[in-house]
Write a structure and sequence with these properties.
Layout (H helix, E strand, L loop, with lengths): L1 H19 L6 H19 L12 E5 L2 E8 L2 H18 L11 E7 L10
Parallel strand pairs: 2-3
Antiparallel strand pairs: 1-2
Length: 120
């Protein structure tokens, strides 16, 4: 019985560090990601150069990677929003967290407003 207990204890001691190193993200990193997403979202929402419908995009940040989702009116708006996100990433990422420049994944869909012109 003592030998079995010792083996189980040994396995538990070896497994403990792996459990502590799991996929848990440091709280500081999660907080930085949330704050960055809010700042990008707020900046896009306040940008009067964008169509009102284009200002309602979804911004998420995970492990420093920004993802932009939603519908915009043109490629120009899509690029403007991506540029705004990239600028915030460069400005807001703490130096100690920068290993490489984070990605900005532009998943915005261009759906131009279709204006219907009445016939004669």
């Amino acid at each position: 019985m003592g030998k079995v207990f010792r083996n189980v204890s040994m396995i538990g001691c070896l497994a403990l560090p792996f459990g502590l190193l799991g996929s848990e993200r440091p709280q500081k990193e999660e907080k930085v990601d949330r704050e960055l997403a809010k700042k990008i979202q707020k900046s896009v929402a306040k940008d009067d150069s964008l169509q009102a419908s284009s200002r309602k995009i979804e911004v998420t940040v995970e492990h420093g990677t920004v993802t932009l989702k939603g519908e915009v009116q043109s490629d120009e708006e899509s690029q403007a929003i991506q540029g705004k996100a990239e600028s915030f990433v460069i400005q807001e990422t703490p130096a100690e967290m920068v290993v490489e420049l984070p990605d900005v994944k532009n998943q915005l869909v261009v759906t131009p407003n279709q204006l219907t012109v009445a016939g004669p």
